[in-house]
Amino acid sequence: MNKSELVEALSLEKDLTYKRAEEIVNLIFDSMTEELIQGGRIEIRGFGSFVVKDYKAYTGRNPKTGETIEVKDKKLPFFKVGKELRERVDS
């Protein structure tokens, strides 16, 4: 499912216009993004949690040329699946 399919499903399920459903989905995603940017954690019980992990700089290698390169520090979002979702998908 992609974002537009999610908007469509919300629109049909809750009898909303597509535009209103899109605003709601965007509000949720924007709020989640802002929380992660600020270093926060998002937990949705039964679904999972989102956190930002810090990765230190390291010396890597370009697989095409074999040349060594310096990879800078970075922060990446990470999702950890919740127990309920894991069990529902597994069954």
From TrEMBL:
Belongs to the bacterial histone-like protein family. Keywords: DNA-binding. SUPFAM superfamilies: IHF-like DNA-binding proteins. It holds the Pfam family Bac_DNA_binding. InterPro entries: Hist_DNA-bd, IHF-like_DNA-bd_dom_sf. It comes from Desulfuromonas thiophila. GO terms for molecular function: DNA binding; structural constituent of chromatin. The keyword Cytoplasm does not apply. This is Integration host factor subunit beta. The keyword DNA-binding applies. GO terms for cellular component: cytosol.
